[in-house]
Write a structure and sequence with these properties.
The chain is an all-beta fold and about 425 residues long. The chain contains no helices and 49 strands.
């Protein structure tokens, strides 16, 4: 099939035609429709100056809602719409670069795909944005990117001077509705609210959200249904399932970390950003509570910290308690099960065992079961069902000494030594 090209001497526009049937209609100056499907009722339409439609069917380059536009391009495909200025649409089906309000869209690109849309959101001009390919993507706002995938969305959430600059790489049904934030891939992940500089790497139904508070610089690497909430800033969740930093109803946490695991939680503060510098390594159902700072749970199951500057290494159902009126600080539970550091203690430790309890300060239970320091200070305990009775003392069920120094050997003052004086006499003495 041969085409003839006609140039309008008044407008400088060119239109190709075959047997009297045009491939489109031109209203712009120095514009062109270079190919398409010839018909008695042409389907391509070019209404802006210095713009080109190369091929395709039912494509339209139109003036914006403000009545202006120029330097636009449609390469090929079907049912495309471009308004505004300096926009590029490569191909595909039913893609749009469009403005629904009075401002013009400019400098945006859709390479290909189907049912993709770049447009303004009512307050932010959709300038300098990009959709690479895929299907059913929406970019509302400036300087943002969806590279590919299916049903991905970027919505700018602040003024033109700062809005946009967000990114979705690929995946399915991911949403970014805050500025300077990215979702690399995955499915049904969300970054929303008033924060900035947030990243979700991949995974399913992970969320970084802020309802009324700000927050930003948060990161979720992967996993499923992990969340960073409400005004939280500088936090990270590596992976896992149902892990959470912050809470929906309060102000958030800052500079805290959950590595992995399931249903671990670093709770929010009751005042802005007061739960800070906390960490949970892994495990499940571990929790660092409201307003706690500089505490950590390394691993384990259902371990809880309410105190500042405290640590649980592992185990199950261990608890470091505290209160506003009588705070606990610098407490450690190494591991074990059901161990507890009580309210008001400082610098006390339980290294292991089960159902041990410390309520005094600067005391330590080395291990065993059912031991209690009795609220005394500077107490050491090792054994079973021991209750402390004396400050500055070590308590044990029994003490066995072997291979001791023999009497007569020079030893420093205070050294235990062995001396067998016969039946009925104590064989152990202190020099």
């Amino acid at each position: 099939m041969s085409y003839n090209t006609f140039c309008d001497p008044n407008t400088g526009s060119s239109l190709r035609s075959d047997s009297g049937h045009d491939v489109g209609t031109i209203f712009g100056n120095c514009a062109a429709i270079l190919g398409g499907i010839p018909s008695a009722a042409p389907t391509n339409l070019n209404c802006t100056d210095l713009s080109v439609i190369v091929m395709g069917d039912s494509n339209c380059i139109c003036l914006s809602a403000a009545g202006n536009g120029c330097y636009n391009f449609i390469g090929n495909g079907n049912a495309h719409l471009v308004t505004g200025s300096n926009n590029f649409l490569g191909g595909g089906n039913n893609n749009q670069i469009n403005s629904f309000v009075g401002s013009s869209v400019f400098g945006s690109v859709i390479v290909g795909g189907e049912n993709n849309l770049i447009c303004d959101n009512g307050s932010i001009i959709a300038s300098d944005s990009f959709i690479g390919g895929g299907s059913d993507h929406h970019v509302y706002g400036a300087k943002s990117v969806v590279a590919g995938g299916l049903h991905n969305y970027v919505y700018s959430s602040c003024s033109f001077t700062c809005g946009g600059l967000s990114f979705v790489g690929a995946g399915l049904s991911n949403l970014v509705s805050t500025s300077w934030s990215s979702i690399i891939s995955g499915s049904c992940n969300t970054i929303s609210g008033g924060g900035y500089n947030n990243i979700i790497g991949s995974g399913y139904k992970n969320a970084i959200t802020a309802i009324t508070g700000g927050g930003g610089n948060n990161f979720i690497g992967a996993g499923c249904q992990n969340s960073i909430f409400q005004g939280s800033a500088g936090n990270a969740i590596g992976s896992g399932y149902l892990n959470q930093i912050g809470a929906v109803t309060h102000f958030g946490a800052i500079y805290s970390f959950i590595g992995s695991g399931q249903s671990n939680c670093i709770d929010t503060g009751t005042n802005p950003n007061v739960t800070t510098w906390d960490a949970i390594g892994a495990g499940q159902n571990n929790k660092i509570c409201t307003n706690v700072c500089s505490s950590g749970v390394f691993v384990g199951d259902t371990n809880i910290i309410v105190a500042n500057c405290s640590f649980i290494g592992g185990g199950q159902s261990n608890f470091i308690d505290s209160s506003h009126a009588s705070p606990t600080t610098y407490a450690v539970i190494g591991g074990g099960q059901g161990n507890k550091v009580c309210i008001g203690t400082t610098h006390s430790s339980i290294f292991g065992g089960n159902n041990n309890c410390v309520s005094g300060s600067c005391s330590a239970i080395l291990g065993g079961s059912g031991n209690n320091d009795g609220g005394l200070n500077w107490v050491g305990i090792f054994g079973c069902n021991i209750t402390g009775v004396l400050n500055n003392a070590f308590h044990a069920n029994q003490f066995v000494a072997q291979n001791m120094v023999i009497a007569g050997t020079p030893v420093p003052t205070g050294t235990l030594y062995y001396c067998n004086l016969g039946p009925g006499n104590c064989p152990v003495y202190i020099c």
